[in-house]
Specification:
There is one protein chain. The chain contains four helices and four strands, in the order E-H-H-E-E-H-E-H. It is an alpha+beta fold. Strand 2 and strand 3 form a beta hairpin. It starts with a strand and ends with a helix.
């Protein structure tokens, strides 16, 4: 199943409501499951990004639809890339 890594940055709105961030993340994971997307991990980070979400979906459209809904809520901006395991990468470059 394709895997994606999404870098998260709080918007001003999200930063103001930072204490609700973990609750929003749990709600996001529940909504993702209902949409057929698995949230593998969610992390809050220090540095250039405020968080990282690792998710997988059986197709790109499901994953990207979910992430656009997340961004539309106005609390975060995302930068998403597809990720590959070592075996997947070996198959690509052969």
């Amino acid at each position: 199943m394709p895997r994606y890594i999404s870098l998260i940055r709080f918007t001003q709105q999200g930063a103001k409501a930072i204490k609700q961030s973990a609750n929003r993340a749990r709600a996001f994971a529940e909504g993702a499951a209902k949409a057929g997307v698995k949230i593998e991990e969610q992390y809050w980070t220090l540095g250039a990004c405020d968080g990282v979400v690792i998710l997988s979906a059986d197709n790109e459209k499901k994953a990207l639809h979910l992430l656009t809904e997340l961004a539309a809520a106005g609390n975060v901006r995302t930068e998403t890339m597809q990720a590959f395991s070592d075996a997947e990468f070996d198959a690509i470059v052969k």
